[in-house]
Amino acid sequence: MLPAFTCGQYGDCDPYDGQCKCPPGWSGIDCLTPQCGSLADDQRIPREDGQKCDCKDGWGGINCNVCKTDQACRGFPLFGIPDSEQDGSEAQNMTCYTGGETVFQNHQMCDVTNRKILDQVGDNRPVQVTFSCDKNEATCSFQFWVDGIESFYCGLDECSSEITPGYDFNTTSYKCDKLQCKCVPGRFICGQDGSVDISDFLTEEIKGPASFSCTSGGNTGSGPSFGGDTSNNCKFSEAAMNQLINDVFGDPYITLTCDGGECLHYSQVPGYVRPPKPDNTRWVALNALGACLFVVLVALLLWYVGRTGSGGDYGFLKKGSGGGIRLPESEEDSENESAKLMAEHVPASMHFDDLSYVLNSKTILSGISGAVKPGQVMAIMGASGAGKSTLLDILARKSKRGTVGGEILINGRIVGDAEFRAVTGYVDQEDTLMSTLTVYETVLYSALLRLPREMSEDAKKFRTLETLNELGILGIKDMRIGSSGHRSISGGEKRRVSIACELVTSPSILFLDEPTSGLDAFNAFNVIDSLVSLARNYHRTVIFTIHQPRSNIVALFDQLVVLAMGRVVYSGVVGRCGDYFDGIGRPCPAGFNIADYLIDLTVQSNVESRSTSPTLENSSSEEEDTSNGPHGEQTVLSGINISRDDSTELQLQTRAHPRPSSVISNSSVSGAYNSIKRKTSQLFEVVSYGNASSSSSQSQPHNHHGQMAAKLRYLVEEYKKSDVAKEIKEDRESVRSSVENSNGDNANSASNAYEAHLSQLPDVATETTLLRGRKRASWGTQFRILSGRAFKNLYRDPALLMAHYLSAVVLALFCGVFYHNITNDIAGFQNRLGFFFFTLALFGFSCLSSLGLFANERILFMRERSNGYYSSFTYFSSKILFDILPLRLVPPLMFGGIVYGLIGLVPTVGTFWKFILALVLFNLTTASVVLWLSIAFESVSVASLVGTLIMLYNLLFTGLLINRETVTKALQFLHTISFFHAAFEALAVNELRYLSLKEHKYGVELDVPAATILSTFGLRAQASSRNTFPSCSFWWPNIALLGIFFGVFTVGSFLTLHFFVKEKR
Predict the structure, then answer these.
(1) Which residues, including other chains, have CB under 8 Å from residue 234's CB and lie 6 or more apart?
(2) Exposed end of the chain (fewer CB within 10 Å): N or C?
(3) How far does Cα 304 stand from its chain's mean position?
(4) pTM of the predicted protein model
(5) 379 — phi, psi (to 5°)?
(6) Nearest Cα to 346, choosing from 583, 509, 580?
(7) Helix and strand tally (H, E) in the chain?
(8) What are the distances in angstroms from CA 727 to CA 406, 813, 1007?
(9) Which residues does 935 contact at the CB level (< 8 Å), separation at least 6?
(10) What is d(CA 576, CA 596) in angstroms, rounded to the nearest whole number?
């Protein structure tokens, strides 16, 4: 009856003594007690109840059956050699084979990874499996453990195994035809404390066949793996057990993570023949063909969409009309909306008093006063350098570098800058337009971005065409703006486009700096006439600077401000200007243009002979006596005092002199000689005086009247005492008091009709909020419009885009020629690192071409944002999406797609896309650095120099030129903050981590893991040296670091753009 005793683990019961013959690692009368120590021990100690085994060094597993190190296998008996032939001496050259294949007896320790099983058991109770096989007997055993306590075991018979090597992984499979399982009574899921008992299920349903398979990435070299990474992804599968797992836990089978080991002599380790590299010829050809086809399609697309049709982007042409204007379908509604825009606004008067401007302790403007009402046009005149543009900037609330003083009232109130800019427009003296856009698109974008969002898009287009027609540029609406060297429209036409961009919004107050600059007399009159029509017909206020307009233009002015050296010579109604100067003894001759006369008068009055030499004094005295003009006036040209009779070629335009007869005599020659001598002396005197004045202004910055010529001081003082100046002051005080009365509910107590009218002047800040709100385009609309504009700019000037795409294809083929079919030896290792280094240098330095992307639009951005076109965020977002990404996202995809298979890098899908991801992130990071440089540095040359230095620093610390381990610990952070190093390490680890290098030279065969050489180079193949995460590659931290770099520099670029790139005048 002794053989009838049942032994655990399906051990044999000896019929003679009734003892169970337990498998290795088990003990006890029923073979259910694990043994501790190590598998190499002759006498092993059984595990005590409730305790865990303390395995010897180099051994692991619940019953200490799994070897971990080669040292643990020293003294282990050799399998396959009879005991009689072993001399008892310690075996040498033993190794712990972890390849997964069973050579003699293999043991594995596994952790169950099914999420539902782990949740059911509990977090603090590990669920494990032990699996061992004996190749000679073709049997395997399987034990299921919960918290170190065996629940059930299985015996597998008629087993076979096979190993399938891949290029960089192994798959080991065990298939057993017969399977029997049995519960350990009273254990988990086997009736413990009256719980679930699957004993009957195991004995009756589990019959086999069963399979156990593991996939390992640890043996990918050209030889066997004796150690290192032994983590395998495994699964145990049997039909009935799978059904139970699926019904109870929702998983198809038991999933495991296993570590295995078997002690062997090095000569017994299974040989490994690395399969040949896959033939990538077809893949390479398809990638190259796809890249070339992509370039051709992009070129055709850019050519097609880059054409400028006769109707522009919106096709505003009548069908069959041969180019006539076609209004939107709802013509009446659009016209009504446009008329509503022109009529429904906040009328704004402007009064300014005692304006001053000081820059670097030098007074530029002083004591400027004036007034202009809705429906009026104010012209600011003066010679060059008189301060016209500076005064206009101050009136328009432009940001100035110096200190501004004085008071500006809008409808008698002080208005904040935000409310003020909402109802004003400003046209700069210099045209800053996008060269790739058409005339129509340029003005339309201004309308779409700045007109009220309640206004329909058709009405905005109608308003755009209406504005173009008013300024006489409708006929060129489909012509591009053009740039230097690629002219399309004339300078005068470009000037009118700039005016149209502001005029299209119909602002309450419109400021223009030299609107007639570059225009002929006829077109200059048309521009001013359109401005006058805007003011008078739609009750707008127009203020502009102008330089010597002709008489029919002057007749259109309502208010005139004349400046000289930053002082007011006249400010008031144009119609009273002539009478005023008559009254102070400076009359304008009959029939002459008063604008020319005033310019000449202010220039002459600013020059006064300051010589103390008798010769020059006598000369000046004679010139005054012989002067033909009234009051002995003289002309100034280039800072030299010249009498009117010296030369007929230098006469004033407001004087008529008969040409002297051409009589040649000795006296005339002598006179000419004396005249030249006198002018030379005067030139040196003027230069000397200018230097003295400059020194005086720096040492005594507030002594202005001492520097002013007597005649100019006379004109300034006369105006201050005039009735015209007093009336402006009284008008300002009247408006202010009326507004204060209306605020105090005393509007009905106005003493006269004029004051009653003034009391009804609206508050611009309040009315602007109530009346349509002047809400311009939303952020979404701004982004859509700016993205469209950026895309047009990109495809209409495709040279840079195509250069990047073609260079990516050509250089990929170039690399393929020199690195083709790279080998798995030391030379192949070097070529891989060299290829990665070259690739990063290629994309890094090519990103420097983006320095000009923002530099070309810097002034345009500052002026458009200052004029309220858009927010800096929407501009930056569209710039990133449609300027940066097409240049930085597509080329690495094309380059990587071609070169990867051509060179013969690791041909797995995951490794390929990691390679591509690293390239793309590196390119985006470098582009973000270059973008920040182009924004931070106004000078392209300085930005280029700094960018080159940054690239060189990153190249130095890439990891190839300087070994990280040889650098002082305190300076090793220089590698960490190098985005070249992050990308280089990610590419190298991704390619070489599991590669094994085989070199045969001079009769010596070397077999070295590439990871070892990587670590020698100072490159980290593992994320951590600890055993906690032994399989975690350092690729992910590097990719995360590249993402952080990209995010930091992108955010930094935006903050720099938002806070530091602002218009300063």
Answers:
(1) 108, 110, 212, 213, 214, 215, 255, 256, 257, 258
(2) N
(3) 28
(4) 0.65
(5) -110, 135
(6) 509
(7) 34, 30
(8) 18, 81, 101
(9) 854, 1053, 1056, 1057, 1061
(10) 16
Q: State the greatest distance between any 2 C-alpha atoms of the chain, in Å, as a whole number.
A: 160
**What 8-state DSSP symbol labels residue 531?**
H
Place of tokens 């606004």: 345
**Placement of tokens 């952790």 in the chain:** 111
Can you name the residues that pair with 128 across neighbouring β-strands?
A: 111, 145
Kind and range of the H or E run holding 739: helix 723-743
**Residue 12 backbone dihedrals phi, psi, to 5 degrees:** -85, 140
Write the pLDDT tens digit of every residue in 396-442. 999 888 999 999 999 888 888 888 887 888 999 888 899 889 999 99
Query: Which phi-psi region, left, alpha or beta, contains residue 547 (left: φ > 0; alpha: ψ -120 to 50)?
Result: beta
CA distance 178 to 920: 53
Write out pLDDT tens, residues 687-737.
544 444 444 444 444 434 446 788 889 999 999 999 999 999 999 888 888
Residue-by-residue DSSP string for 210-249: EEEEEEESS--SSS---SS---EEEEEEEHHHHHHHHHHH
Q: What is the tens place of the pLDDT at every residue in 326-367? A: 444 455 666 666 666 666 677 889 999 999 999 988 999 999
Token readout for 895 is 């380059």
E-strand ranges in 555-616 read 559-564, 567-573
| Residue 672 one-letter amino acid | A
E-assigned strand segments in 463-526: 482-483, 486-487, 509-513
Return the SS3 of 46: strand
Number of neighbours of residue 766 by Cβ within 10 angstroms: 13
**What is the signed CA dihedral for 729, 735, 737, 740, rounded to 10 degrees?**
-140
Close Cβ partners of 1038 (under 8 Å, ≥ 6 residues apart): 918, 982, 983, 985, 986, 989
- Which residue shows structure tokens 């254990």? 187
For 749-758, the CB contacts below 8 A with 24+ separation are 758/412, 758/734
Rounded Cα distance between 448 and 903, Å, is 51
Task: Report how far apart, in Å, the C-alpha atoms of 223 and of each of 583, 741, 904, 1006 are.
Answer: 110, 99, 20, 11
Cα–Cα distance measured from residue 931 to residue 910, given in angstroms and rounded to the nearest whole number: 31
Q: What CA–CA distance (Å, rounded) separates 527 from 503?
A: 11
Q: What is the rounded distance in angstroms from the CA atom of residue 1020 to the CA atom of residue 959?
A: 10
Looking at the chain, how many residues does it have? 1065
Contact 69, 227 (CB under 8 A): yes
Q: Cβ contacts of residue 583 below 8 Å, gap of 6+?
A: 722
Higher pLDDT, 800 or 688: 800
| CA dihedral for 585, 586, 591, 594, sign (positive or negative) | negative
Torsion of CA 406, 409, 413, 417, to 10 degrees: -80
> Residue 493 is which amino acid?
E
Residue 221 scores a pLDDT above 50: no
d(CA 10, CA 495): 99
Q: Beta strand pairing status for 377-382 and 559-564? A: parallel
User: For residue 522, which phi and psi values (nearest 5 degrees)?
Assistant: -65, -50
Q: How far is CA 171 from CA 219, 232, 235, 992, 1025, in A?
A: 10, 9, 12, 20, 26
Give the whole-angstrom CA distance, residue 802 versus residue 910. 30
Q: Where are the alpha helices (DSSP H) in 73-186?
A: 115-121
Q: Residues 642, 636: contact at Cβ < 8 Å? A: yes
Q: How many whole angstroms separate alpha carbon 459 and alpha carbon 505?
A: 12
Report the alpha-carbon distance of residue 25 to residue 141 in Å, rounded: 12
Place of tokens 């006296």: 667
Before 507, cis peptide (omega within 30)? no
Instruction: State how far the Cα of 100 lies from the Cα of 274, in Å rounded to an integer.
Output: 16
Residue 610, number of CB atoms within 10 A of its CB: 14
